[in-house]
Design brief:
Blueprint: E1 2-6, H1 8-13, H2 17-22, E2 31-37, H3 49-55, E3 63-68, H4 72-79, E4 86-90, H5 97-106, E5 110-115, E6 133-137, H6 151-166, E7 171-175, E8 191-194, H7 196-199, H8 204-211
Parallel strand pairs: 1-2, 1-8, 2-3, 3-4, 4-5, 5-6, 6-7, 7-8
The protein binds D-xylitol-5-phosphate and zinc ion.
Zinc ion binds near residues 6, 33 and 193.
């Protein structure tokens, strides 16, 4: 299981952010998961973008960027400078997802799409063959430290089955409320995102080890 560490809980606390974010370089996490919020698609707004870019400027891990925003093009332009492995936008505000998928690929960025807890996998069927990553939200997007929603488990299984049957190539990622207690239930995912479980502890690596199954 690959682990992407979200820095949202660090950012929310606003204390020693740079030092805590940089400490993730010393772990074996696979990605740094960067949550970007615009105060429109979700209530919360993350730091001003230049501050966010400064905060992660010394990160050596590959970036996995999750934009919870209405204006996908604006944030793609801002965050492409980080050369993320994946940039994931939300289906619910995408209009025609294929346009964004193509734009991301033209920029050399893996194209990811996210679905909120109430959005079914079926809406993604026309795009599955073009996508590099599918992010299944296991909490309502908008803040860290929420409780995992079980409805995501069946979606992971469905996405895995669709990939097996059709030879698709996307990675399956699950995001929100992940800790050691439900890691067995999300075994159909390839990547788990974990924020508060890792970064609210003193020893990040120890927490990450608990998620490796
Ligand atoms: C929620 C974010 C998640 C979340 C992960 O809107 O997309 O990445 O912050 O943090 P935890 O693990 O605390 O739920
Ligand atoms: Zn996220």
């Amino acid at each position: 299981m690959q682990v992407a560490c979200s820095i949202l809980s660090i950012v929310e606390k606003k204390v020693d952010c740079k030092q805590k974010v940089d400490a993730l370089n010393d772990t074996n996490c696979d990605y740094l998961h960067l949550d970007i919020m615009d105060g429109k698609f979700v209530d919360m707004k993350t730091f001003p973008d230049q501050d966010m870019l400064n905060l992660v400027k010394d990160i050596k891990k590959p970036f996995d960027i999750h934009i919870m925003v209405e204006d996908i093009g604006k944030y793609l332009d801002i965050y492409k400078v980080l050369h993320p492995t994946y940039l994931t936008f939300h289906y619910e505000v995408a209009g025609d997802p294929s346009t964004w998928i193509q734009t991301l690929k033209q920029n050399g960025i893996g194209a990811g799409i996210a679905i909120k807890p109430k959005t079914p996998v079926s809406v993604l069927l026309p795009y599955l063959n073009e996508l590099n990553l599918i992010l299944v939200m296991s909490v309502e997007p908008g803040k860290g430290g929420q409780t995992f929603l079980d409805s995501s488990v069946a979606k992971l299984e469905q996405l895995k089955q669709l990939r097996d049957e059709n030879g698709y190539h996307y990675q399956i990622e699950v995001d929100g409320g992940i800790n050691e207690n439900m890691i067995d239930r999300v075994k159909d995912a390839d990547i788990v995102v974990s924020g508060s479980f890792v970064t609210n502890a003193d020893n990040y690596q120890k927490q990450i080890d608990l998620l490796r199954i």
